[in-house]
Write a structure and sequence with these properties.
266 residues, alpha/beta, TIM Barrel, 8-stranded parallel barrel, 8 strands, elongated
Length: 266
């Protein structure tokens, strides 16, 4: 798709959402560790475990028929050793049913990426703002200085050389993201990186306006689902209290003779 058409990618964490996105034709579904915040209520992605990621990955795989499902490797599941990274990545493929994994980091992850790819596991890279490193680099845009920009270019080239099939560029200045996109032969997927990348990814809860703790600057809310849900639930609650729900139309019927016979036997 690189150079031919833009690549849309969205996060998905459950069967129902994955099924809807797949039916629309979204080609890439990321089971992001962002589920820790939008699904599990954690303050960051750091506490997310492999078991939680596999649980949600399996659900997404069951809901998708055409989309490529990518499992996001959680914090410290691929840093300790290449062997442990391989073991955990394999779990995403074998147990989770994913077709690829995503991991954060540039040049420092080259050996790991190369090993995973050589064993048949497709890897998507992720550079720029890497949320798992937030305690170290903060939640701020990356690549704003010449030194940072050069490092990100080197990171992208190193990941491509190691065998990554695509790279997420998060919170990177537009001009830099476009430059990196032109320098590498593999697709770049931007999030907060401007329109010059080969594709875009958004957290589904941000796009639908259902996560209300905060709205990232890079997110566009195509609908405010939280408001619609509140309205629907408030209406339901009022109707239950007033006794107007359920009506006969929402109830199962029974043959009057059967009912009378039941009453007699009782």
């Amino acid at each position: 798709m690189k150079g031919k058409e833009k690549v849309p990618m969205l996060t998905a964490y459950d069967y129902t959402t994955a099924k809807l996105l797949d039916e629309v034709g979204v080609p890439l579904l990321l089971v992001g560790d962002s589920l820790g915040m939008v699904m599990l209520g954690y303050e960051s992605t750091i506490p997310v475990t492999m078991e939680e990621m596999l649980h949600h990955t399996r659900a997404v795989v069951r809901g998708s028929k055409r989309a490529m499902v990518i499992g996001d490797m959680p914090f410290m599941t691929y840093h300790i050793s290449v062997a442990e990274a391989l073991r955990n990545a394999a779990r995403f493929i074998q147990e989770g049913g994913a077709q690829a994994v995503k991991l954060e980091g540039g040049e420092m992850m080259v050996e790991t990426v190369h090993r995973l790819v050589s064993c048949g596991i497709p890897v998507m890279g992720h550079i720029g703002l890497t949320p798992q490193s937030a305690l170290q680099i903060g939640l701020k845009a990356q690549g704003r200085t010449p030194e940072e920009a050069l490092r990100l270019v080197k990171d992208a080239l190193a990941l491509e050389q190691a065998g990554a099939f695509a790279i997420v560029l998060e919170s990177v200045p537009f001009a830099l993201a476009e430059f990196i996109t032109q320098k590498v032969a593999i697709p770049t997927i931007g999030i907060g990186a401007g329109p010059g990348t080969d594709g875009q990814v958004q957290v589904i809860h941000d796009m639908l306006g259902s996560y209300t703790d905060f709205v990232p600057r890079h997110a566009k809310q195509y609908v405010k689902l939280a408001d619609l849900i509140r309205k629907a639930v408030a209406e339901y609650t009022q109707e239950v209290k007033a006794g107007t729900f359920p009506t006969e139309a929402h109830s199962y019927k029974i043959d009057p003779q059967v009912l009378e016979e039941g009453k007699k036997r009782t």
